[in-house]
Design goal:
Layout (H helix, E strand, L loop, with lengths): L4 E2 L32 E5 L10 E3 L11 E5 L5 H15 L9 H22 L1 E5 L13
Parallel strand pairs: 1-2
Antiparallel strand pairs: 2-3, 4-5
């Protein structure tokens, strides 16, 4: 927890009762240690009918392009059909005859995972994720 630096030193609460203090501890939950979020403002002129004033913090938003990619298989494609066929073959040919030993079970599971991963890599393609990576975005949009 950090203490935010005030940009203007005014009360955050205005009591209707004479003799009661015009302050109270108000909380704002922001990212601790952030230099961008290390100050806030109090707006007594925005109080309206409340006995508390509004607290604000300015957050600068810059456009940022985050390049990311993943492996994907298009639904109802030939690649999807091949992937399903290969995984079915992998599962069908697993040796599960003697799984009474934990080591043998782990070997079967690891073989299944490894072979499924290989089938995925073989049939999938790397797709770059951009702001246009929405379900409605198609080749015509390019």
């Amino acid at each position: 927890m950090d203490l935010s630096v005030l940009t203007n030193q005014v009360s955050t609460r205005y009591s209707d009762t004479v003799g009661k203090a015009n302050f109270v501890i108000d909380l704002m939950f922001l990212r601790s240690g952030s230099s961008e979020l290390n100050n806030h403002s109090i707006h007594p002129d925005w109080q309206l009918t409340s006995d508390h004033t509004l607290l604000t913090v300015s957050i600068s938003i810059v456009e940022e392009n985050i390049n990311s990619s993943k492996f994907s298989i298009m639904k109802n494609s030939e690649e999807e059909a091949m992937f399903i066929k290969e995984v079915s073959f992998i599962i069908k040919n697993l040796d599960v005859s003697d799984l009474f030993n934990i080591n043998k079970l782990e070997n079967v599971v690891n073989t299944l995972a490894s072979n499924t991963k290989s089938a995925w890599r073989k049939n999938s393609k790397r797709v770059n994720i951009t702001r246009h990576s929405k379900s409605w975005w198609n080749k015509n949009c390019n």
